[in-house]
Amino acid sequence: MAESYIQELFAKRIGGNTFGKDTKIYKFEKIKRAKMAAREKNPGKELFDFGVGEPDEMAADMVVEALRIECAKSENRGYADNGIDELKQAVVRYMDKVFGVTGIDTDKEVIHSIGSKPALAMIPEAFIDKGDGVLMTAPGYPIIATHTEWNGGVTIKLPLLKENGFLPDLDAIKEKDKKRAKILYLNYPNNPTGAVATEAFYKKAIKFAKENDLIIVQDAAYAALVYDQKPLSFLSVEGAKDVGIEIHSFSKAYNMTGWRLAFVVGNASIVSAFANVKDNFDSGQFIAIQKAGVYALEHPEITEKIAVKYKRRLEMMVDALNSAGFSAELPKGSFYLYVNAPKRAGKVEFASAEDASGYLITEASISTVPWDDAGAFLRFSATFSAKGEADERRVTEEMGKRLKALDLGF
Ligand SMILES: Cc1ncc(COP(=O)(O)O)c(C=O)c1O
Fold it and tell me: What is the pTM of this model?
């Protein structure tokens, strides 16, 4: 059949006329295929999936009930546009109660979004023209970088290294990059490293932003999931609102990934530009979902309970991994354990974390996510599927045994 002319119409940003013909297989597709292969090779063997990046449980019963009630009300049926006031007010109270952030203007400094992923995708629309830069932590959640590039901008990678507590080294950024950058993207608690930011780091970042005329976008998707410390908001640090916004999500904090609800809070000019762009992309999240979100924000103890579960699981994972030779430590936040990838298993050498991760799936039916951006690391998520504490112990102990049997070298 003659090639369709449609192939010639694709925009360059998605590959132009080579779109769909790329034979390169990307990391997550490789993991998916390796999992399928492992299941075929060992049909009777339970596959332990430590690769998932989303909660294994449903939203709290009362949040589901709030949605059930609200979705039956006629007044909630229409376009929500840039959001309902009740949610904005609940955000203001939540930021005070959980993070001690006060003085947020309900009208000008808060807006909902249909998850934080679209918010991150839209921010470059408001700021990035051809040649403009975004300073982006690596490894990191790639959405803001992708859209920066789609707008003709450039991504400048800031490696997250263990020796710096997985915080970017702002002093190492080149003059040229400081000049062209308009956005510094941060994400704490961090995916995938599990690191949290300190107040001192945020202070430094705010000073850096002011000196170099750039904005800070702090992705707080895991904000309230912290262990042995109080959650810290970027906005609680003096001067933060002069330069930045923080994006909070209901996905991980409230087990609401599929519901698609988040909020952007902070600098009024940035919120206003985001609102303008957003209004041209979507018509807001279903009001009933926003109202269920209000219930959730009024009950931060839901998140605290979820964090207790993850901490328990992470502790079990640390023990299991260390029994097999890893150097795992309890992360300060998020639900991820980020550990140095093994260099070998018996006589088999690994050239990368991706190699090691592939081996663990095929040989031990253990799925992880590899990162090779700044050193070779594996990410184990505490959201693996297990029913209750005894089952969590069974899964993690079995993982430890399987890993030990591989004779890993580091
Ligand atoms: C760092 C980070 N930001 C944002 C998101 C997206 O979250 P949401 O469900 O709010 O779009 C994720 C999801 O994995 C994430 O890890």
Answer: 0.96
Q: What percent of the chain has pLDDT over 90?
A: 92
Q: What is the enclosing helix (H) or strand (E) of 378?
A: strand 377-381
Sign of CA dihedral 398, 402, 404, 409: negative
Residue 104 exposure: Cα atoms within 13 Å on the Cβ side = 28
Q: Taking the domain 61-299, which CATH number applies?
A: 3.40.640.10
Which residue's CA is the closest to the ligand 1 atom numbered 3?
Answer: 221
Q: Which two tokens stand for residue 190?
A: 């961090």
The ranges assigned to domains in the chain are: 5-58+302-409, 61-299
Strands (E), 139-286: 154-159, 181-186, 215-220, 244-249, 262-266
Q: How far is the CA of 140 from the centre of ligand 1 (A)?
A: 11
28, 54, 116, 334: residue to mutate for ligand 1 pocket, most atoms within 8 A of CB: 116
SS3 334: coil
